[in-house]
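Q&A FORM
Asked by: J.P.
Topic: structure of MFS transporter

PROVIDED:
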Amino acid sequence: MPTTSPAPVTPARRWTAPYVRLFAPPGAVAFTVGNLVARLPMGMFTVAAVMMIAGQRGSYALAGAVTGTGLAATAVVGPLTARLVDRYGQARVAVPAAAFAACGALALVLCVRLQAPDWTLFAAYAATATTPNTGGMSRARWAHLHRDDHGARHTANSFEQVADELCFVCGPVLAALLCTALFPEAGTLTGAVLLLTGILLFAAQRRTEPPVAPPEAGRGRAPVRLPGMPPLLATFVCTGAVFGALEVVTLAHADALGHGAAGGAVLAVQAGGSAVAGLAFGTWAPSGSVRRRFRGCVAAMAALMTLPLLGAASGSLLVLAGTLLVAGMATAPTMVTGMTLIQRRTPAARLNEGMTLAVTALLAGIAAGSAAGGWAAQHLPGGPALAYLVPVGTALPAAVVALAGFRSPHGDRLSRGRRSPSRR
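REPLIED BY: S.T.
REPLY: Here is the structure written out as tokens.
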């Protein structure tokens, strides 16, 4: 009796098969679409607010202070919102939280438009801090849908990192386009509409929503105090500083070379390298110690961050773009592996809170890196080219903390009540 031989595993099939498996559960595509729509405003709000306030009030200092206050408020409110999501469920908390944030964005538009006192801008933008961590909620859904498939969860973390990269690349571009092509308030208004629409679509997919854990499951130490979390969050802060410094210094360097309009395109090349690396990383079946893999990724990122410094010294924007492309290929694997460690160290009942802490640490680092990179680009004798020392200087502490902070023999164990998939 003739038998049918299995279809050959082609490179294309090897690339797509993990993602086909990832999106196989019913409702996975639907909640992903809603999540992406809701996540895009995360890359829009800051740029849109700066352009709107600076355009109407004529002060970049005021615009920066307002957005900085919003970031500080997010650092405080974000983990609290995530804790409520863990306790009461995604749909019950995310929708009103997003609605409140959208109202804050609308209030900011009105305050700017009506020439309200400056303090009202701070209050209105601070209200947007209730924006739920859509990336964290999406990762929690993947962890629930593929709770018995370690490989699929790895692919999910890779996909989510690529989604983050694309949203933070496309968001600012869309905001700038809307504010310049239409009217100064268009970016903020569009962001508020997208946020609320995306959250409603996301929350409507109830069959993929993780069940709410019993109240007693959420008790105990806060995620920030769990073993291994402090050095992990410190690494996220340093990594965020790398991202923030790299962005500002690259824009300043492109402007110094007389190609200021090309700065965004050069940054897009760096993000593209990270996105491609993230997609490829998601097709790889990881094995061995996660913490060892994390140390290797952070060390590789620190080493590759020396390339933009050399590229800038060449004086060629094309050479700089090539070095940023290569350097960017280490950032996605670093973030994917870091998020995997966050998931492994955080109890399921407080997973959203744990991942929101990671995002908050990353945003704090981005803010600090942006400030340091801007100062260096303006004040160092070598100008913006020498300011690429800042990303190098912030990547090195990330590597040191990662190498020194994860030497516990129990570093790969999951949090209480969750077994490692490798030991099942």
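FOLLOW-UP: The radius of gyration is 22 Å.
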